[in-house]
Structure formats: C-alpha cells, structure tokens
C-alpha cells in the first residue's frame, strides 16, 4: 500500500515537472482578441462581390469602388481589400473559414445575431434560452475575460474596448469589474494622456450615423492608448462599422470600413512588434460574431432565418502558431472553440458551468495548458 502511494506521488511529480517544462516553452504572454462585426467570409477570402458592386442601390460610385477593390482574380481582390491580412497574417499565421475549400467555421447558437454571437465567442458555449436578444441585459454567463482576470498574474490586466454600446452588458462589467470602454463612453481617470483628452473631446463633436455604435476610429485609438499606458496582458477590441454599414445597404462603406479595419490591425501589430513588452510575446486572435446572407438584399441581413448567417471565420497569428497561412483542407470548427483557445495561449485551462468548445487543434501545442489554480 505504501509503495502504491509513493509510486503515485512519483508519477504526479513527474507529470507536474513535465507540464511546467512545457509551459516554459510557450512564448505567448499576451493575447489580443479582435472582432469585426458581421464581416462575411466571402469578402475575407474572395474580396469585393461583383454583383453588389454593380448594384446602384448599394454603391454610389461603382467605377470609383472598382478602382479601389476590383480585380478579376479573387486572390488579387482580397489583397486589395485587406492588404495587411493577406500580406502578413496569411504568411505568418493561420486563416480558417474559406468554404470554397470546405474549411468550415460555424456558430453553435441558433439566433445568429450579435449578442448571442459575442456570448458564444467569449464564453465558449451557446445560450439560446437566456441570450436571445440584443437588449442591454447583463450577461448571466461568466466570460473567458472575467475568468482570466481571476487567475494569478492577470488581475487588473484584462480590458475591453468596443464600438457597440452593449459590450458592458455582454462582458457584465458590473459583476466582472473589468474596464470596458464602449459605445460613446469617454475615457475617465485622474491621469489622462493628451491623446485621450483629445479623443474624448473629438468624440462629442463627430456624430455617428447610428445611435448605439460609435465610429471604429475612436475604439481603435482608445484601445491603443490604453495599451501604451497600462500594458494589459489580455485585450478585447470589437470593431462594429461593417455590420451597421451592411444593414444600411451601403456596400461601398462596408468595403471601405473593412479596408480601414485591416489598416487598424496593421497599426496595432506594428506597435506591438516595436514594444519590448509585447514583441514576439503576443498572439492575435481575430474573428466575427456572425455571418450574413448572400445575394441581392439578403447580404444586408442575418439571423435565424437567413442562410449563411451561421457561417463565420477566424484567424490566428503569434509566436506559438505555425505559419500555415490559409487553411485549405476540409475541416469543421466552431466559434465556441475560441474562448478555450484564447486561454490556452496563456497556459490556462478555461472552464465554465457548462461544456465549452475544445481548443483548436493546430494553432497551439495543447500540452502547454495547465490546470487552473
């Protein structure tokens, strides 16, 4: 009996030693999650849609838009639309969701609109019964951001910035205590930088076309300033314009917003790679909250009754992710896998009060995931 106890103790010690050694090999110390609200996989992987560019109901100046983003070759089109993603992330990271190659990413939730989509991304599971509207109700589910913030070494090192004013409720800022700047909220605090003061002033002077979503430039620059000043280990940046321009039927603005967001991500990555705190220690995880329809009219919409609204995508780039580029083999992944994957990059085994999606195979060595404290 004593021998069995000693042997079990020895095995446990060896396992803990090997696990600690594996964790030391993980290079990621920080993760930045980025979402582009309602950006279709079609534009991501094939660029501008010819039928929509030709439609005068959706485009004011078709010739000008074609000059910016059109080419007969879909690979050239996507490069023109999203140059940073296809020049840098596609060569240094991994992209999933090109359904032309049967590389599939889908939602698990049945509602296929924003709040349920963001809940699925951030919690790792669909909650169709309780998360069934975009109303400003505090999320009863604990997100992976809140979970990470409770782990040793991460307290007060997690923050979120979003263009949509519902994010404080999705993340449940009141319960979690996480700093969430979203909608038209100004940055507050006793030691604001000159840039933050300017952004606060400018935000009140430039009207947004929408009552609940601010322009993404404010979200981007607020987030970047927070990075410079506070050095968080986990940040969530949620851009929102693409979905609202699509709902409005402005395909030209939808494309231009996607192009500008690509430039924002380049700006962010460039700064990260110049910072000793983040260079070669940071992983980007980029995705969308839902898909949208295809074809005249339906491209503007999403929801339970809209075909393709459950079709999403994601991409990963960082020091621990092999540079496989665009994934072209048939696979099936789900949005609910992102929360556990995000935590895994930090060596954390994320768990919730119900089953969550598994870590995405191939983007991270799974042996680096530790048990929670």
Task: Provide keyphrases for this structure.
single chain; 373 residues; alpha/beta; Alkaline Phosphatase, subunit A; eight-stranded mixed sheet; two-stranded parallel sheet; 15 helices; 10 strands
Structure description:
- The protein is of the alpha/beta class.
- It has a single domain, classed as Alkaline Phosphatase, subunit A (3-Layer(aba) Sandwich).
- The protein has 15 helices and 10 strands.
- It has helices spanning 2-25, 41-46, 50-54, 62-69, 74-81, 83-92, 114-123, 144-149, 167-170, 173-176, 194-205, 216-230, 241-247, 251-274, 338-344; strands spanning 30-36, 94-96, 103-106, 158-162, 180-182, 234-239, 282-287, 314-317, 325-326, 331-334.
- It has an 8-stranded mixed beta sheet.
- Helix 5 (74-81) crosses helix 6, helix 11 (194-205) packs antiparallel against helix 12 (216-230) and helix 13 packs antiparallel against helix 14.
- The longest helix is centred in the N-terminal third of the chain and has 24 residues, at 2-25.
- Residues 5-24 have low confidence and may be disordered.
CATH architecture: 3-Layer(aba) Sandwich
CATH topology: Alkaline Phosphatase, subunit A
Number of helices: 15
- Summed up, the domain count is 1
Largest sheet: 8 strands, mixed
Strand order across the largest sheet:
5-4-6-1-7-8-2-9
Helix/strand structural class: alpha/beta
State the order of secondary-structure elements, H for helix, E for strand.
HEHHHHHEEHHEHHEHHEHHEEEEH
- As a whole number of angstroms, the C-alpha radius of gyration is 21 Å
Strand content: 5-15%
Number of strands: 10
Percent of residues in helices comes to: 40-55%
Given this structure, which CATH class is correct? Alpha Beta
Shape: globular
The CATH superfamily appears as Alkaline Phosphatase, subunit A
